Amino acid sequence: ALQIYTSMAPRKVDLNETTSSAAIGAYGKAGAWDKASQLFNVTAKNKLEHTTIVYNTLICSLEQSDKWEEAMQFLNMMEQQNLEADTISCRFGRSACSKACDWEKAVLLFSAMAMSTVERDAMIFNAAISACEKGSQWEKSLQLLSVMANKKIER
């Protein structure tokens, strides 16, 4: 996938968000998270603007490969690039936090979503609750369940 992608530019094939996401996603599905990260870096060197969609594809690939630390790094990079995380970004970020048992980061991400335009759905609530559970933070889990009930979000 990397060879095909890098050979596209000299052939005047448009390297864009779609082609980048497709190639990164292909690596992710193959479990080749390192190649997905490498391709992400190649696209940056080629001056291709990384969009939320490209970041989401990479974060998904990393999260599925249990590379939660790397997933969180790229989620942080999105923020540094002034890209707004969407529901998908946050869902994968939350899942990464949950796998890492990092309840504090999960709750911070959850709180940040409340101040953004990102909609907090049942999956995001459940991931935050799971992270709190794994971190033995049952009080936080109960608080999140209460918020979920108040907002009438079904589990």
What is the strand and helix layout of this fold?
Layout (H helix, E strand, L loop, with lengths): L1 H7 L8 H13 L3 H13 L6 H13 L3 H13 L6 H14 L2 H12 L7 H13 L3 H13 L5
Helix pairs in contact: 2-3, 2-4, 3-4, 4-5, 4-6, 5-6, 6-7, 6-8, 7-8, 8-9
Low-confidence stretches: none
Task: Tell me the β content.
Answer: under 5%
Anisotropy-based shape: elongated
Q: Calculate the mean pLDDT score and round it.
A: 79
SSE class: mainly alpha
Largest sheet: none
Query: What Rg is obtained from the alpha carbons, in whole angstroms?
Result: 17 Å
Measured between the Cα atoms of the first and last residue, the distance is 39 Å
Helix-strand sequence = HHHHHHHHH
Can you give a write-up of this model?
With 155 residues, the chain is mostly helical. Helix content is 72%, strand content 0%. The model has no long low-confidence stretch (mean pLDDT 79). The protein contains 9 helices and no strands. The protein has helices spanning 2-8, 17-29, 33-45, 52-64, 68-80, 87-100, 103-114, 122-134, 138-150.
Keywords for this entry:
155 residues, mainly alpha, 0% strand, elongated
Offer a concise description of the structure.
The protein is 72% helix and 0% strand. By secondary structure, it is mostly helical.
